[in-house]
Every structure is written in structure tokens, then in C-alpha cells.
Amino acid sequence: MNTNGDVKEVARQKYGQAATQIAQGATGSCCSGAADPITSNLYDALQSAEVPEKALLASLGCGNPTALAELKAGETVLDLGSGGGIDVLLSAKRVGPTGRAFGLDMTDQMLALAQENKRKSGLTNVHFLKGEIEDIPLPDNSVDVVISNCVINLSGDKDRVLTEAFRVLKPGGRFAVSDVVVRGEVPPAIRKSMELWVGCVAGALSDQDYLAKLAGAGFENAEIEVTRVYGIDDARDFLAGQSTDIQQLAQQVDGKFVSGFIRALKPLVQQ
Is residue 101 part of a domain? Predict the structure, then answer.
């Protein structure tokens, strides 16, 4: 069984459906439960006012990387798995007219929604690309900052994603992503669930594995800052609809899933 391909196709269908619903005025969610503890309350009122409403509705992430990435005027930013484009639009405002903000997504419906949000924003330094995060369609050493919002955990080949992020970053460039991270062991029933994988949870790396993979890709000074811890009530929410004993599973994952801001640097001098 090609797990990576299967997950990718389910993700493409799920996020495509979400984009279509949002385009029609519904609210999106990346997770399987009706109540979504992961994607809610990520942007403050000021940031929400900076982007079109449908860009905010299409925010299916787990954090707010643009608020933490310390973007500077004139920088080039790449958002992996850009969805409806909220983080690309916010980044474009921060880097200003002398900078550029790229968004990469594999889902046609999300790209169409992102292009519409770009048009409504009036921003001219925004570029959306179709492609996969395991094969970034940008040249080597072309980006100052790579951001992402709860997307890398969906990939079945995270080593490839991190290697590609390292490749496109300029020497001294910054990796600054939000992602779901696991602390401790996770029940097999969670790991096996395709729905939960696409819902930001089952594909998550442990904190130590994440740091090790970043080092293996060539990054230095990698660190994880926990931004939200999911407790037992959150676990019940994102396990809603699963056939296994929900109460038992919720107790097993209480406090083990967190949203984290993951930082790392591409060395100025390559080995």
C-alpha cells in the first residue's frame, strides 16, 4: 500500500471539498470533529481585518506562523500548503512591495479560492503556485523564509519536504512553521486513521523526531516552541466520529498533542 499516495489523494479530496464549501460561504475545518480545537482562534481581530473573509474561513491550520516568523521588508516568503492564502496575504503585507510572498498548494479548488482572495486583497506581490511540498517548483537558494501552517504533518515523506525547504532557502534563510507535534506515544488506532491524518493529527511527528529530521536535512539551531496544548476535552472533539472507544482514546492522548512553532536556520556556510 502506498501510504503517502493514499494520504495525498484523501487530502486533495478533503481540502478541495472544504474550498468549495468556503467559496459558497460555509466555514472550513481541517479536523474530523464538528468542534475543531486545532483550527480555531488563531488570528486576532487586527489580522482578521487585513484579509478577505473567505481567506480567514479557509484557514485550516494549527497556528499563526506569520505572527512569529519575524518577517522583514523586502524578504521573499514561501508558504507550503497555502490553502486559501491567508498566511500568504499576511506575509505579503509584512514584506511590503519590495518583497514577495509565494503560496504552494496541490488542490485546484484551494488555488482558485486563493486567487480570488488575492484579487480582493489588491496585493501585487503575491504569487500562487500549483505543486506538492515534496517537490517545490522554485529554484535553489531563492527564498528568505519558509512558513507553513499545519501541513507538513500531512506528508508521508517529511524528510523530502524538509530537504526541499532547505534547498530553496538562501544561506542564512529561516524555517518558521506551525505544526502539530506529539509528546510521547500515540495509540495505534490514531496512527492508522486516514481521516485523522488528513485532520492534522495522525501524521504528526514527535518533538524529538522533528528536530532530528531538521538536523538531517542540514538545518541548525532547530527548536520547538509549544503554542497550544490539547487536553482531554480537545481530544474528545477531534476524535468525534471514530468507531473506537472515544473516552478511552481521549484519555490516552490527553496532553500529548500540541501545536508548536518550529524554527530552524539554513547555515550561512554550507558543509
Answer: yes
Range of the domain at 127: 3-65+78-181+191-218+257-265
Alpha-carbon span 186 to 93, nearest angstrom: 39
Q: Please name the amino acid found at residue 118.
A: K
The number of distinct structural domains making up the chain is 1
pLDDT given for residue 248 in this prediction: 74
17 grid coordinates: 471539498
128-143 pLDDT, tens per residue?
A: 999 999 999 999 999 9
Specify whether the CB–CB gap between 27 and 176 falls below 8 A: no
Spell 44-61 as b/e; 16+ CB within 10 A means b: eeebeebbbebbbbbbbb
CATH of the domain at 139: 3.40.50.150
Return the C-alpha cell found at 116.
480570488
258 Cβ partners below 8 Å, 6+ apart?
Answer: 180, 181, 182, 183, 226, 227, 228, 229, 230
> Does residue 249 register a pLDDT over 80?
no
Residues 6+ apart with CB under 8 A from 168: 78, 136, 138, 139, 140, 141, 142, 143, 146
